[in-house]
Amino acid sequence: MDNMNSHTPSSEGISSVHVSSERSIRQKRDLAWKYISEGAGLNGKKILICGFCQKQICGGGINRMKQHLAGAKGNIDACKKVTADVRCEMKGLLEENVKKVNEKKGIFESNDNSTQESPSTGKRKANTQLGSYFKMGLNDKDQPSIKACMQSKERWHDVDMAIALWFYDACIPMNAVNSAFFTTAISKIAGMGHGYTGPSYHSLRVNLLHDAKQHVSLIIDSFRRTWIETGCTIMGDGWKDVRQRPLINFLVYCPKGITFLKSVDASDIYTNAETLCNLFAEIVEIVGHENVIHMVTDNGANYKAAGAKLTERYSQITWSPCAAHCVNLILKDVGEIPNVQSLATLASKVTVFVYNHKCTLNWLRKRPGWREIIRPGATRFATTFIALQSLYERKDHLHALVIDTEFKKFLKMQKGKEVKQIVQDGNFWNNCLMIVRIMGPIIRLLRICDTDEKPTLGYVYEGMYRARLAIKKLFKNRKTLYKPYTSIIKQRWDRMLRLDLHAAAYYLNPAFQYDQENFCKKPEIMRGLLNVIDKQNACSKTKMADELRYFRDTTKMQQYFCFSAFN
Predict the structure, then answer these.
(1) pTM above 0.70, yes or no
(2) What gap in Å lies between CA 544 and CA 299, rounded to an integer?
């Protein structure tokens, strides 16, 4: 009996084993184990490993790792790689643990809609169905209310359909939902609750429009401080409305952004350089003549004359025509060269024939890898060369078309014979490729100048310089071959864009300044920089000279940027 008793576990031992097993199972069911793994340390002890930052701890258990993921201060460092939704989830689990501890002590919180009572245990637990709505964590300003989260899918669809029908009925463009104000407006409407009816027609036309104008004026006033600190550029954009009235929109550019200033009906002053100059001077005074560095307008003869008069009146201002328009004119002049014009005509015959006959177009569209041919536009001269490139890329498809049996019926037509002859002419395709390569650098420069993504003043000089070098290299420096193209570029460049400001911007662009192998070392670049500095007042000259030394020395410039970032 004694031996039997010595080998039989006591009731107390059975109870302790059962509790330990139950606790282990309960811990493994903790939601935090999805992001935590177990391992063994060097001394053989169990360690816990964070699934995000791979941090290892030897003690504290899963609760300590939850504090690590939740960013709770005190016991362990916060995880820097955990996502916002997981951090929010861990915070909720920690709060739930605190709540359970308080309930055991007899401390109960007031009821709210975020918890519900378990029918089996009678205890209150967090509603985990709401977690999917809080993707940005606790700091999400657009979090829906608990009432909205609990709505059915049918109710959500009904609200979405109401908004969609409003868009369709009022012909509102679909991309209006991408506006930064759309989400804000929806959130504020939802925050008003039941009974909000929205603004009236009169309010939108009068009261709210007046308030919005005042709001925009305050934004412009904040931009004015940047105009004073860094200087600015005035841009004049000429266009014609539906009544063919010449209008000029004036905008102000600074590093903080572009601001629309005013629109002027120039019907009475459109052709008068003196009156046009007075209009420009009026705009300059609105901005502040000491703040204006550069003025950009159309490159018409009257604008050029008005710009010259303006620079005489304000010596520190540089006038220049629109770079994108000038590049477009280069493409226009190249497109009028006889051999380029005849090449474009042949290409147009092929494109027109293909798209005028349903049979040929359907045949091509059934081929794998087929993409539509780009056709020249009426106003954009670059589209002529883009169309030649597009046609050349579909060379194999067109070859397959003209030798197919389906095309034989078109050989009875004169136009069909011409198309087959053009497509099978090797010289035609070689000429297409040559023209595309010649004008490739110019088209790339046009894309740079015509974008709103970043300032492009510092890329104009380099773009023109590279384009001429590329054309000369393409013809292996044979002057008789490249001269017709480079002379057109040089003529437009010398007449319109070969300005001190462009040379200075090229010199001050770090992308080119430290590329010593390809940097252009023509005397006109340094001369242009010195001329721009010389236009400034005495205080600005000294400041620019000091900063120029930092800019030119690579090592000092890096130290300067590091010091600025530290401060």
Answers:
(1) no
(2) 30
